[in-house]
Design a protein that fits this description.
The protein has 8 helices and 6 strands, in the order βαααββααβαβαβα. The chain is globular and about 45 Å long. The chain is about 45% helix and about 15% strand. It is of the alpha/beta class.
Protein backbone atom coordinates (compact mmCIF):
# COMPACT_ATOMS: atom_id res chain seq x y z
CA UNK A 1 0.00 0.00 0.00
CA UNK A 2 1.62 3.25 -1.10
CA UNK A 3 -0.99 5.92 -0.46
CA UNK A 4 0.96 7.14 2.57
CA UNK A 5 4.45 7.28 1.13
CA UNK A 6 3.62 9.54 -1.81
CA UNK A 7 5.29 12.88 -1.16
CA UNK A 8 3.91 16.33 -1.87
CA UNK A 9 5.85 19.63 -1.80
CA UNK A 10 3.71 20.80 1.09
CA UNK A 11 4.83 17.81 3.18
CA UNK A 12 8.26 19.27 3.78
CA UNK A 13 6.74 22.37 5.35
CA UNK A 14 4.41 20.57 7.73
CA UNK A 15 5.00 21.50 11.34
CA UNK A 16 2.42 19.15 12.83
CA UNK A 17 1.16 15.67 11.90
CA UNK A 18 -2.19 14.97 10.36
CA UNK A 19 -4.56 13.58 12.98
CA UNK A 20 -6.80 10.71 11.87
CA UNK A 21 -9.50 8.72 13.59
CA UNK A 22 -10.36 5.45 11.88
CA UNK A 23 -13.81 4.35 13.01
CA UNK A 24 -15.03 0.81 12.30
CA UNK A 25 -18.57 -0.52 12.54
CA UNK A 26 -18.49 -3.78 14.46
CA UNK A 27 -22.23 -4.04 15.07
CA UNK A 28 -24.04 -7.38 15.08
CA UNK A 29 -25.01 -7.09 11.41
CA UNK A 30 -21.33 -7.09 10.45
CA UNK A 31 -20.94 -10.52 12.01
CA UNK A 32 -24.34 -11.85 10.96
CA UNK A 33 -23.86 -11.10 7.26
CA UNK A 34 -20.14 -11.79 7.08
CA UNK A 35 -20.83 -15.26 5.71
CA UNK A 36 -22.87 -13.70 2.90
CA UNK A 37 -20.55 -10.99 1.62
CA UNK A 38 -17.47 -10.95 3.87
CA UNK A 39 -18.14 -7.48 5.26
CA UNK A 40 -16.48 -8.08 8.64
CA UNK A 41 -13.53 -9.74 6.98
CA UNK A 42 -13.12 -6.71 4.69
CA UNK A 43 -13.26 -4.37 7.69
CA UNK A 44 -10.53 -6.33 9.43
CA UNK A 45 -8.43 -6.40 6.28
CA UNK A 46 -8.88 -2.63 5.92
CA UNK A 47 -7.77 -2.07 9.51
CA UNK A 48 -4.64 -4.19 9.01
CA UNK A 49 -3.86 -2.47 5.72
CA UNK A 50 -4.10 0.96 7.33
CA UNK A 51 -2.00 0.05 10.35
CA UNK A 52 0.71 -1.49 8.17
CA UNK A 53 0.71 1.42 5.71
CA UNK A 54 1.13 4.00 8.49
CA UNK A 55 3.97 2.16 10.21
CA UNK A 56 7.09 4.32 10.15
CA UNK A 57 5.18 7.52 9.32
CA UNK A 58 4.18 8.44 12.87
CA UNK A 59 5.73 11.91 12.55
CA UNK A 60 3.36 12.75 9.69
CA UNK A 61 0.27 10.75 10.60
CA UNK A 62 -0.93 10.37 14.19
CA UNK A 63 -3.96 8.11 14.35
CA UNK A 64 -6.33 6.30 16.64
CA UNK A 65 -8.57 3.38 15.77
CA UNK A 66 -12.03 3.00 17.27
CA UNK A 67 -14.97 0.68 16.79
CA UNK A 68 -18.64 0.90 17.70
CA UNK A 69 -21.39 -1.67 18.13
CA UNK A 70 -24.87 -1.99 19.58
CA UNK A 71 -23.51 -1.62 23.11
CA UNK A 72 -20.72 0.93 22.69
CA UNK A 73 -20.30 4.29 20.97
CA UNK A 74 -16.51 4.32 20.93
CA UNK A 75 -14.28 1.40 21.86
CA UNK A 76 -10.65 2.49 21.68
CA UNK A 77 -8.47 -0.11 19.97
CA UNK A 78 -5.46 2.06 19.11
CA UNK A 79 -4.67 5.32 20.93
CA UNK A 80 -3.13 8.48 19.45
CA UNK A 81 0.64 8.24 19.70
CA UNK A 82 0.57 4.51 20.46
CA UNK A 83 0.38 2.58 17.17
CA UNK A 84 0.72 -1.21 17.31
CA UNK A 85 4.40 -2.07 17.33
CA UNK A 86 4.29 -5.39 15.50
CA UNK A 87 2.14 -8.02 13.84
CA UNK A 88 1.12 -9.50 17.19
CA UNK A 89 -0.33 -6.19 18.37
CA UNK A 90 -2.13 -5.65 15.07
CA UNK A 91 -3.65 -9.12 15.44
CA UNK A 92 -4.95 -8.14 18.88
CA UNK A 93 -6.73 -5.14 17.34
CA UNK A 94 -8.43 -7.32 14.73
CA UNK A 95 -9.38 -9.93 17.34
CA UNK A 96 -11.11 -7.23 19.40
CA UNK A 97 -13.04 -6.09 16.33
CA UNK A 98 -14.30 -9.61 15.66
CA UNK A 99 -15.23 -10.17 19.31
CA UNK A 100 -17.13 -6.89 19.40
CA UNK A 101 -19.23 -7.85 16.38
CA UNK A 102 -19.77 -11.41 17.58
CA UNK A 103 -20.93 -10.74 21.13
CA UNK A 104 -22.60 -7.32 21.08
CA UNK A 105 -26.36 -6.78 21.26
CA UNK A 106 -28.36 -5.60 18.27
CA UNK A 107 -28.47 -1.86 17.78
CA UNK A 108 -26.79 0.92 15.85
CA UNK A 109 -24.57 3.69 17.20
CA UNK A 110 -23.16 4.84 13.86
CA UNK A 111 -24.23 8.49 14.06
CA UNK A 112 -23.28 8.92 17.70
CA UNK A 113 -19.96 7.21 17.01
CA UNK A 114 -19.16 9.50 14.08
CA UNK A 115 -20.04 12.54 16.19
CA UNK A 116 -17.86 11.27 19.03
CA UNK A 117 -14.97 10.52 16.67
CA UNK A 118 -15.15 14.02 15.17
CA UNK A 119 -15.13 15.52 18.64
CA UNK A 120 -12.17 13.39 19.72
CA UNK A 121 -9.98 14.25 16.75
CA UNK A 122 -10.96 17.93 16.93
CA UNK A 123 -9.62 18.02 20.48
CA UNK A 124 -6.60 15.76 20.00
CA UNK A 125 -3.92 18.44 20.09
CA UNK A 126 -1.98 20.40 17.46
CA UNK A 127 -2.38 19.09 13.91
CA UNK A 128 -1.78 20.05 10.31
CA UNK A 129 -5.19 18.62 9.40
CA UNK A 130 -7.85 16.41 10.98
CA UNK A 131 -9.78 13.49 9.51
CA UNK A 132 -12.36 10.92 10.50
CA UNK A 133 -12.65 7.92 8.20
CA UNK A 134 -15.65 5.79 9.17
CA UNK A 135 -16.35 2.31 7.79
CA UNK A 136 -19.88 0.91 7.91
CA UNK A 137 -22.33 -1.47 6.24
CA UNK A 138 -25.14 1.08 5.70
CA UNK A 139 -27.70 -0.81 7.77
CA UNK A 140 -29.58 2.45 8.35
CA UNK A 141 -33.19 1.92 7.28
CA UNK A 142 -33.70 -0.74 9.93
CA UNK A 143 -33.03 1.85 12.65
CA UNK A 144 -34.74 4.80 10.97
CA UNK A 145 -31.50 6.65 10.25
CA UNK A 146 -31.49 9.10 7.35
CA UNK A 147 -28.95 10.45 4.94
CA UNK A 148 -29.56 13.92 6.33
CA UNK A 149 -28.70 12.74 9.84
CA UNK A 150 -25.53 11.09 8.54
CA UNK A 151 -24.52 14.29 6.78
CA UNK A 152 -25.04 16.31 9.96
CA UNK A 153 -22.87 13.90 11.93
CA UNK A 154 -20.09 14.03 9.33
CA UNK A 155 -20.15 17.86 9.39
CA UNK A 156 -20.45 18.20 13.17
CA UNK A 157 -16.93 19.63 13.62
CA UNK A 158 -15.90 22.39 11.18
CA UNK A 159 -12.18 21.66 11.62
CA UNK A 160 -12.58 17.96 10.77
CA UNK A 161 -12.96 16.33 7.37
CA UNK A 162 -15.16 13.29 7.98
CA UNK A 163 -15.88 10.69 5.29
CA UNK A 164 -17.94 7.52 5.55
CA UNK A 165 -16.92 4.49 3.49
CA UNK A 166 -19.63 1.90 2.96
CA UNK A 167 -17.99 -1.50 2.55
CA UNK A 168 -21.34 -3.30 2.27
CA UNK A 169 -24.92 -2.31 1.59
CA UNK A 170 -28.49 -3.38 2.14
CA UNK A 171 -30.29 -3.09 -1.19
CA UNK A 172 -29.35 0.37 -2.54
CA UNK A 173 -28.98 2.28 0.74
CA UNK A 174 -25.27 2.96 0.41
CA UNK A 175 -25.48 3.87 -3.28
CA UNK A 176 -28.27 6.38 -2.66
CA UNK A 177 -26.32 8.09 0.13
CA UNK A 178 -23.11 8.16 -1.92
CA UNK A 179 -24.94 9.86 -4.77
CA UNK A 180 -26.50 12.37 -2.41
CA UNK A 181 -23.23 13.25 -0.62
CA UNK A 182 -20.37 12.35 -3.01
CA UNK A 183 -17.78 14.32 -1.03
CA UNK A 184 -18.71 12.76 2.31
CA UNK A 185 -19.91 9.24 1.48
CA UNK A 186 -18.01 6.71 -0.62
CA UNK A 187 -19.14 3.28 -1.80
CA UNK A 188 -16.13 0.99 -1.43
CA UNK A 189 -17.30 -2.60 -1.88
CA UNK A 190 -13.88 -3.58 -3.26
CA UNK A 191 -11.08 -3.07 -0.74
CA UNK A 192 -8.52 -2.43 -3.46
CA UNK A 193 -10.21 0.95 -4.11
CA UNK A 194 -9.58 2.17 -0.56
CA UNK A 195 -5.95 3.35 -0.96
CA UNK A 196 -6.89 5.55 -3.93
CA UNK A 197 -9.89 6.98 -2.07
CA UNK A 198 -7.80 7.85 0.99
CA UNK A 199 -5.01 9.26 -1.13
CA UNK A 200 -7.51 11.59 -2.75
CA UNK A 201 -8.67 12.82 0.66
CA UNK A 202 -5.11 13.80 1.58
CA UNK A 203 -4.55 15.49 -1.79
CA UNK A 204 -7.79 17.45 -1.37
CA UNK A 205 -6.65 18.58 2.08
CA UNK A 206 -3.44 19.99 0.57
CA UNK A 207 -5.54 21.87 -2.00
CA UNK A 208 -7.83 23.23 0.71
CA UNK A 209 -4.83 24.37 2.75
CA UNK A 210 -3.42 26.16 -0.28
CA UNK A 211 -6.69 27.96 -0.90
CA UNK A 212 -6.92 29.07 2.74
CA UNK A 213 -3.35 30.37 2.62
CA UNK A 214 -4.15 32.38 -0.53
CA UNK A 215 -7.09 34.17 1.09
Amino acid sequence: VDFIVEQHPVDRALMQPKKITFLFDTSASMYRFNGTDGRLRRSCEAAVMLMEALRGFEAKFDYELLCHDGDHVALELVSFGKPPADEKERLKVVSKMVASAQYCNSGDNTLRAIGRACERVANSGPADDRFVFAFSDANFARYGLTGEALGNALKSQPTVTAVCFFIATFEDEALAMARRMPDRVKLCLELKRLPAELRQQFVDSVVRSGRRAAL
